[in-house]
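Attaching the record inline, Q. Sequence:
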Amino acid sequence: MDGELKILAPDILVTQGNEAEQAVLPLIEKKKQIDRFASESVLHGRRIFWLHTWHPSNYGKFYKQKEKWDFYAEKIHSFISNLQTTQDSNTKEKFKMTTKKLININDFHREAKEKLPQMFYDYYASGAHDELTLSDNSAAYSRIRLRYRVMVDVSDRDMSVEILGQRCSMPILVAPTAFHGLASPQAEIATVRAASEAQTLMILSTLSNTALEDVKKEAEVPLFFQLYVYRDRSATAELVKRAEQAGYKAIVVTVDAPILGTRERDVRNDFRLPEGLTIKNMTAAQLEKMSEDTGSGLGNYFASSIDPSLSWKDIEWLKGITELPVLVKGVVHPEDARIALKSGASGIVVSNHGGRQLDTSPATIDALPDIAEAVDGGGAVLVDGGVRRGTDVFKALALGADAVLVGRPILWGLAADGQNGARQVLEILRAEFDKAMMLCGFRSAAEIREKGKQILF
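Structure, as predicted:
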C-alpha cells in the first residue's frame, strides 16, 4: 500500500480490540509488534484508535521502540484527521466524529481529566493538604478588575519581552513541571517543540522524563534549567555543568522545597512512575531511593536527595561554579527577594510551587507587587501559579512581572493532544493577552509594566 493509510472497513474501525487491529494490520508489516490500536477513547468521541504506547501506564512495554511507534501514531493521527473532513454523514456517525472544540484553558483541563489515568491526573492537578492555596492562585486573579482606557490607537502592538537577554515573542513562558511523559509519549520533546513553535522560552525541570541534552537538541528557543540542590554537591555541580555545556541560558534554583509538601491525592494513590518511565537527570542511587518509597514515590527522593540545609550561601556557591545567571524560584516574601539579589541572584520567580508545598501560603499574584517593589529593577521578575487567561497575564505585568510562567495548562495541552495541544494552549493565551492589551488601551508589554497598574482596582 506504499505506506499510505486508507479506509479499509470504517464500520470495523469503530469497534474495539482485535477487529480494529485487523483493519489496520495491512498497513504495518509486523503483527507481533502491535498490541492494539483501539482504545476506550472511541466511545467518548475523541479518537478512533491509537497506539498502545500512548497509554502512559503501559509506556515501559514499548519504550525502546518509541520512535517507531511515534511514527505510526503520527500517520494514524493524520489518517483520522482526514476522516474528519468527509462529507458522508453515515461515515461520520460510524466514526463518532463529533470532535470537541477546545477554545480555552479550562476546556483543555477538562479534556485532559477525561483522558489521563486518575493517578496521573491527580499528580498534575493536586495541591498540598486542603488545596486552599492551589485554588486561590487562580481566584486571586479574578479579584482584580481592569478599568480600561478608550480612544487609544492600538493598531500596532508589540507583545515581545526580553528575559535576561533572551528575546521571547510574548511574556508567556513555559514553567518547569515534572514528568511530561505521563501526558505524552514524547514527553518534554513535545513541550519544547511547542515552545519553539510559539517562539517562547521554556524552563526544563530537573524531574524531566527526557535528558536535558536531548531537550536542548530539539529547542529553537532559549532554555533555562530548573535545579534542586542535592545533599551531594558534586551531583548538583555536575547537573549545572551539563546544563551549561548543553547551551542552557540560566539556572533556576528552587528554594521552597526543603521537604516535599503533603499532596494527599498522591498519598492515597500511592503515586509512582510507571515502568519504563524514568527521571533522566537523576543518578541510579536516587532512582533506587525513589522506587523504595511506600507512600508517594517522590517522598524518598526528597528525603534522601534534596538538601534541607539550603541557605543563601548556596546561591553564592552556585554563582561560583557557573557563568550562567541564577534565578531563585519559590519566593513570596519581599525580604527574601532582597537577600536573593544581594547573594548574587539575577532574578526572582514569585512562586508557591503551584500550591503544592505550604497550604495557606499567599496567592502569587497577591505576593507579586511587594516583591517587584523590592527588586526595583535589580533583576528579572517572573511569576507562576493560577494563570489561565490572557487578562491574568496583563494583570501580572501591570503588577511588576516581566513575564508569567504557565505549568499545568501546558500539561493539559499535552494530555489532550500532545505537541499540538501544548502549542494551542500557548497560542490561546497569546491571543487572549493580545485582545486584553487592545481592549485596555495598551500597545506593548513594556507599556503595561510601566503604566498598567493605573487601571487596576
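Residues 1-66, 83-98 have pLDDT under 50 and may be disordered. Residues 408-440 form the longest helix (33 residues).

More tomorrow.
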